[in-house]
Fold:
Amino acid sequence: MSTLVRRLGLGDAIAIGIASMVGAGVFAVWGPAASSAGQWLLLSLAIAALVAWTNATSSAQLAAQYPSAGGTYVYGRERLGPWPGYLAGWSFVVGKTASAAAMAMVFSSYWAPAGWERIIAVAVVWVLVTINILGVTRTASAAKVLVGIALVGILVAVAVGWSSDGASSASFGWFATTPYGILQAAGLLFFAFAGYARIATMGEEVVDPERTIPRAISSALLVTLALYVVVGVTLLLRVGPAAIAGHPAPLRLLVGGRPWAEVVLAVGATAASAGALLGLLSGIGRTGLAMAREGDLPKWFDHTGKHHTPWRIELALGVLLTVIVLVADLRGAIGFSSFGVLLYYSVANCAAYTQDDAHRRHHKVWQVLGAALCLLLVVTLPVGSVLGGVIVLALGAAWRMAKYRIVERTR
Structure:
């Protein structure tokens, strides 16, 4: 029997949403985005935030009507049909698995000894898989602690960066960019906002979901956006776009020469990455459970244990992440994740567009804008990420078609 229990309040849901976003945006994506957007980095951030807001309103509107595990996989099936729902779920699972691998790599990159980065990343994957298996309330409690530590590290870096001698003397040179580069950076930065989906995918475990989920999604997104704006402005004005683009961990440039601040930043970075990974594992597990219920993943995964968590999916995910962490690189994981998640939200916007007035909270223009922007950012992502995403999406579609042909032949 696969049963989930409503235990999460508004504060729990907000904490999981913020923890799922903060680790990605602040510590992993500024460098790749600055390489594409240069001095227009904040414009790319604004575009990414607009896309995130349109998607958030659609997700909140749908989650209020369908408060069950699975997020857009469920919404797509209910509003558009089995195939759109499946493609949304498949895009989410593969995209967020890549994102989870990225977060594990970021976690280890800030403090692991040279040569031990991947081993440490694998270890943290299994620690957090265990926490998720032990129950959703433990996940929420851990998320609150981790996001608190992360915010301390970020705020210390910003404060030191604005001090007279805190920032690095890195080059402030500006460089040319193009509208394509700005949009590509927006697509990469969107990777940093997608954590609010964790709230919707945990719809069966939230108390009073019709009210709690929309409020939690909006609150988590606004808090995270404010934080990103502060960090982005600080990096541009105190470090410069050229230095950001050329550095794997730009926030370190803000605390250069302050050993105590570097330690606080490293602790914050590891906590943020762990919090994001924790939220990602929860969301992937619940979407996988919903897909298994409908037969779009093996029925063996349609199971929850004594802690009311999809432990079989969590264990399988831990094995898959171990393989990815050992062979993948960070930039490729970010681009691949953005591809999958943007497609996922394009389905969410289309599904929300079909809702009737009784369940509508936002004008249809937001859903049209959101779907169009999602598809625009998808095609501007790095070519390798787009090609890899198309191949994996095609494999998922081929698997589903082959499965149902076999089922029809056996009838």
The chain has one domain: 10-410. Residues 168-172 have pLDDT under 50 and may be disordered. The radius of gyration is 20 Å. The longest helix spans residues 259-293.
